[in-house]
Amino acid sequence: MSLAPRAFEVPVPGELVEVAPRVLRLTAPNPSIMTGPGTNTYLVGEHDLVAIDPGPVDEGHLDAVAAAAAERGRLRAVLVTHHHADHAPGARGLAERTGAEVLGYEERETYSPDRLVREGDLVEVGDVALRAVHTPGHASDHLCFLTETPDRLLFSGDHVMGGSTVVIAPPDGDMAAYLDSLDRLLGERPPIERIVPGHGPLMPDARAVLIGYRAHRLAREAAVLAALARRNRASVEELVADVYTDVPEALHPVARYSVWAHLLKFRDEGLATSAAPDRLEATWEPVG
Length: 288
Ligand SMILES: [Zn+2]
What we know:
CATH superfamily of the largest domain: Ribonuclease Z/Hydroxyacylglutathione hydrolase-like
Order of helices and strands: EEEEHEHEEEEEEHEHEHHEE
Number of strands: 15
Strand order of the largest sheet: 1-2-3-4-5-6-7
CATH architecture of the largest domain: 4-Layer Sandwich
Low-confidence stretches: none
Mean pLDDT: 96
Bound molecules: zinc ion
Number of domains: 2
Largest sheet: 7 strands, mixed
Structural class: alpha/beta
Shape: elongated
Distance between the termini: 54 Å
């Protein structure tokens, strides 16, 4: 399968790019430290289309997605990977523009699905067939969508991102669940070929990316545990300063959430303890 070279380049908001046969990408103009170049909205199909992740309520972006769909046929379904503000809130506006149905894991404060999609459900629209894979970790309601065709594309939402790692923010984010979800995807048969992420460019070697993500998380985990042992008593902030020496300081406030998520996993495993584990500001100690 040959792919447009631009599929692998950093997305530019407002540019419509065919990243794979019958898969168009339109990136919303919401770049930030958390969203990279912006949220990718995908249109999948030929005449009957599915949209994945409408993005925020941005009228210009939703107009452009609706227009791109109308040029090819009719948008039937709007799939939402998870409820976060950069992915879900545009769902209703896109549905109103097109008459499509909104599909997602469950009703949350940012959107409300017309139909719920759960682990293993097959979303079939025209000749598009996408299987929902429940991948909690980044968010408890996170779904990835996998094509059942030999191309084995995984629409990964924020479970895997192009150009950065993923923040796990408790309490909705859960590090143990995140690692389990990565393993789960590595176990898919036939294997996933390519990753089509919610942010950043298409990733051609899914297995290498998933293994790399797993190794990265486990390396951070080991580093957090070692730093806690060295200090014997530490705040999340102190552990970030010890462990995230390879990451610009501007990102340290965000990294705190992932360290907190590691610490909560340690607590559940009997490796660390805190008097106030449910607070980001708490102090932690190793056990044993
Ligand atoms: Zn996102």
